[in-house]
Design goal:
- By secondary structure, this protein is an alpha/beta fold.
- It folds into 2 domains: 155 residues, no CATH class; 226 residues, Spore Coat Polysaccharide Biosynthesis Protein SpsA, Chain A (Alpha-Beta Complex), CATH 3.90.550.10.
- Strands 1, 2, 3, 4, 5, 6, 7, 8 and 9 form a 9-stranded mixed β-sheet that branches.
- Strand 1, helix 3 and strand 2 form a beta-alpha-beta unit.
- The longest helix has 37 residues.
- The protein is globular and about 75 Å long.
- It starts with a helix and ends in a 5-residue tail after the last helix.
Length: 446
């Protein structure tokens, strides 16, 4: 029985590969195009075009004003990092940057979070003989959540540029310079930093996330940045012009404050078309990713649910050309709503559809074909990232064998995103999060 099914699957796959249009173009499109081409390939082509544009520009790059050294305020959001916060502070203190760096660890709930507070205090002696480096520890004795932490740090920041950083993230020693040089252009109001998985060798899931960060986040944002359509400035590693953030009133309460801030900035793009959000691949930060599949899927349940909350509940009225401008409106709808909300349901329904309509052997052939298509796309982006973008190509090359698993990983992540959206739709899961206490979240408008 199993042998017959596998034989049928093999014959069907050969037929699909050798003569895909034998049953007619309409049937082929009905079976495969909604799953692969309509929603995804146009975006992939735009990203690849942007990467090639960036690579050509990088080859002939000349730093116009290397003496531009604004004061930088690094707001570190701390809650339960313990001694890990010392690595973050140390990596900022040791930056190869001639300007002034103000490091502000904001300890949320410092009364209960004594370990993190004391760990930050232990770093103070190292700043006594370090020029242009200031450590200003800000304890918030009662917990107020991530947004409260960021806004408290913003009130104390004296720099022209502010960085919103996680307390368990460390940085390459040229990060500050690479990130801040963009602000020479007065139209730049935000820069997204490049995050890498620090515990990449811990488990299979950390290796898969490292590839995801490399080809989806790193390569994707490089391509989008070239057309000023960066979709999000990461909450763990975001850099902003302080004066602009202050005009917006700081960060808004609620979850997914990074995407919320990105959209609030983009709401001015139509009225001020010269405004820019950049992505800087050479400003590198390192963070620990979930090292078990259980922790990973719990994290994505929150992330993808928050995306639904931001796009559908809170910022639905932001999707207007009078606010975002046509270019960002199209890409925000395409990459945001279609990719991250609609596509998971398309994949889920498509999978159920082929199982109901077609015999098992043909279904296996379809899955094999889809796997090969996604594997080809993944390999292309992996090689492009490795050759044109990676600052650690030898380290990234070690991930090559795991590229073969990525189509399966991506499939399950997208199906899980549909579950997260349904949970947010019916249960308002953004109100049940560790990012802020319940008495803070219940006061949010949405």
């Amino acid at each position: 029985m199993i042998a017959d099914i596998l034989a049928q699957a093999w014959q069907s796959l050969l037929l699909l590969l050798i003569s895909p249009f034998q049953q007619g173009l309409e049937i082929f499109i009905l079976k495969f195009v909604p799953f692969v081409l309509f929603l995804e390939l146009p975006v992939y082509l735009i990203i690849l075009l942007g990467i090639f544009k960036y690579y050509i520009r990088k080859i002939s790059f000349i730093d116009e004003n290397p003496a531009y050294l604004p004061t930088v305020s690094c707001i570190i959001t701390c809650y339960s990092e313990g001694n890990d916060v010392q690595m973050t502070i140390r990596s900022l203190r040791e930056q190869l940057y001639g300007g002034r760096i103000e490091i502000i660890p904001v300890i949320d709930g410092a009364h209960q979070n004594q370990n993190t507070y004391l760990a930050a205090k232990e770093m103070e002696p190292g700043f006594q003989d370090t020029p242009n480096r200031i450590l200003r520890i800000l304890p918030k004795w009662q917990r107020g959540g991530r947004v409260s932490t960021l806004n408290s740090g913003l009130q104390c920041a004296t720099g022209e540029v502010v960085m919103a950083l996680d307390g368990d993230t460390s940085f390459d020693n040229d990060m500050v310079y690479q990130a801040t040089r963009h602000f020479q252009d007065t139209n730049v109001v935000g820069v997204a930093g490049n995050l890498r998985v620090r515990n990449v060798d811990k488990s299979l899931v950390t290796r898969l996330q490292a590839i995801e960060y490399l080809i989806s986040i790193h390569a994707g944002r490089v391509g989008l940045s070239e057309f000023n359509i960066v979709n999000n400035v990461s909450g763990a590693f975001g850099i902003f012009r302080k004066s602009f953030i202050q005009k917006l009133g700081g960060w808004d309460s609620g979850t997914a404050e990074d995407l919320d801030m990105t959209l609030r900035i983009k709401n001015y793009f139509a009225r001020y078309p010269n405004l820019r959000i950049r992505f800087e691949p050479r400003a590198v930060g390192h963070t620990d990713a979930p090292d078990t599949f259980r922790d990973f899927f719990n994290q994505r349940l929150r992330w993808d649910g928050d995306l639904f909350y931001i796009y559908i509940r809170k910022h639905f009225l932001s999707f207007s050309p009078r606010l975002l401008g046509w270019k960002n409106l199209i890409m925000q709808v395409w990459v945001g709503i279609l990719f991250q909300i609609v596509l998971p349901f398309v994949i889920l329904l498509y999978t159920c559809y082929v199982f109901i309509i077609y015999p098992v052997g043909f279904v296996l052939a379809v899955w094999a074909l889809v796997y090969l298509v996604y594997l080809l796309i993944t390999v292309i982006f992996y090689l492009v990232s490795l050759i044109m973008l990676s600052e650690r190509p030898r380290k990234d090359l070690r991930l090559a064998p795991f590229v073969l698993i990525m189509p399966f990983f991506t499939f399950f992540v997208r199906v899980w995103a549909a579950v997260a959206c349904l949970k947010e739709l019916f249960l308002k899961s953004h109100l049940d999060t560790t990012m802020a206490p319940w008495w803070v979240l219940k006061k949010t408008k949405f």
